[in-house]
Write a structure and sequence with these properties.
alpha+beta; five-stranded antiparallel β-sheet; 3 helices; elongated
Length: 102
């Protein structure tokens, strides 16, 4: 788990059989809230159904990197600082795809 602007993100590193390296950050967006816990996500999903806020999604971002994983982390951090709020609004149905681009 890593932190970006106060938000926890689940971090995974992937290496292909050809040596390509990729870092992936993801979280669950359920009923207008972010979480990294699959159990909390299920609870929020139930709460969302009851309150009429049933939207849910996994938000995942990935970046390739060479030998320095920190360069991939920096790319992801920059992207999320630029686009994170727009992604959340889009997932929550508050904006259309055309409006969400920064």
């Amino acid at each position: 788990i890593t932190m970006i602007d106060g938000q926890r993100m689940i971090e995974s590193e992937l290496i292909s059989v050809y040596g390509q390296r990729r870092i992936v950050w993801h979280l669950y967006r359920v009923a207008g809230r972010n979480t990294t816990s699959k159990y909390e996500a299920k609870f929020l999903q139930l709460l969302g159904i009851i309150t009429g806020q049933g939207r849910s999604a996994v938000i995942a971002v990935a970046a390739d990197y060479g030998n320095e994983v920190d360069s991939g982390r920096q790319d992801l951090k920059n992207f999320l600082l630029e686009m994170g709020a727009g992604l959340a609004r889009f997932v929550d149905g508050q904006v259309g795809m055309k409006e969400s681009g920064g």
